[in-house]
Amino acid sequence: MRVIVTAGANGIGRAIVERFAAGGARVAFCDIDDAAGVALAAQLGEAVRFLPADCADMAAVRAFMADAFDWLGGVDCLVNNAGILVSKTILDLTEDEFDRVMAVNLKAAFVATQEAARRMIADGTKGSIINMSSVNAELVIPNILAYNISKGGVAQLTRNTAVALAEHGIRVNAIGPGTILTDLVRQSIFTSDDARRAVMSRTPLGRAGEPAEIAEIAWFLASDAASYITGQTIFADGGRMALNYTVPVRE
Ligand SMILES: NC(=O)c1ccc[n+]([C@@H]2O[C@H](COP(=O)([O-])OP(=O)(O)OC[C@H]3O[C@@H](n4cnc5c(N)ncnc54)[C@H](O)[C@@H]3O)[C@@H](O)[C@H]2O)c1
Fold first, then answer.
1. CA-CA distance, 203 to 154, in Å (whole number)?
2. In the chain, at which end, N or C, are there fewer CB atoms within 10 A of the end residue's CB?
3. What is the value of pTM for the model shown?
4. Tens digits of residue pLDDT in 178-214
């Protein structure tokens, strides 16, 4: 399998690169963290290539996709994983911050999907595209306004492109993680013991998820085992979205 992953040097993206490489895939990934990208590619060997690119820059995303196609000789699976978070509400979020979150989380996924879909169709590849959504595509946290909006957009990008590309045999799905232990969560969500307790009190399984648990879903969605699944978001959230607000908060 020939796989392209955006933002694959750390966190969930890194776990996905590792999972696909372990499964025998060839993987090209981008990131802005050059040191981590170079180290990961060196660790995983010749089947994995790091191609530095900033997903806030659409020309860079298109160039990354072209370089990845050249190296892989096409593409069977694209994972749109890049995502950033700015902790501000409607009252203090700046236009630049709004634009940057939209660019990385939503527009880059649109651009990479367009490039991948065009290449898959030209090659006759019945491939698969996986978008990294979030429970925050559906639920609201007021101080992550731009993130909420971008992930809501990812939900519709997923459904729209699933229907548009179905006639070409290309499947498009998303993964909606709850709270997964990565730098994003350590730096922006688990900012204090109280914040950590608040999140865990609304997570029925009582723990944060691991990046590898999200990578397994990506592996499944890319495989023939998921051959009749398209247009779906699989939420891996420890039960959070099933929790009714009338259930007592767990201490
Ligand atoms: N961690 C969670 O709990 C969680 C929950 C729901 C959804 N997600 C989503 O999963 C995805 C990955 O999140 P994570 O927690 O692994 O994040 P992370 O912050 O741990 O890692 C993100 C990676 O993206 C890279 N990156 C940041 N900006 C970039 C840019 N402009 N261009 C290219 N690379 C860039 C970083 O260098 C890093 O390697 C995101 O789309 C995020 O919204 C995460």
1. 23
2. C
3. 0.98
4. 999 998 888 888 888 888 888 899 999 999 999 999 9
